[in-house]
Specification:
Length: 134
Amino acid sequence: MTTTIPQLPRAVVDVRPGDQDAATAVEAWLQDYATSRNPQLRERIILAYLGVADRLASRFRDSRGTSAEDLVQTARAGLIAAIDRYDPGYGTPFVPTPWPVWSANSNATCAIPAGGSILPGRARNDPAAVPGSR
């Protein structure tokens, strides 16, 4: 026996800065997603906020050693993590929720040296702490 997942309308909403109507509509989707965990609803929410994630990635575009594609990928991964973690029960609207997650992910991506090696905090702050750097 197979179970059919009900199809949601394919209307795509793009949340833009200052667009309170779109943010309110997607906030209602987030409320529903928190209880149903419907993958199609999750997809609609992700699509609605992709533009926001991409705009955030563009804020870091001048970072050395990080490609624009890496920044976009990191911002989008942060968006998905924020959607999955969001709990409307706290009473906080969604839009402020992902900024710390996205910013932390983007800052971490930008902090990786061009060689691709991730250095521990002490080594980043004190180059003499890296073996062979003297």
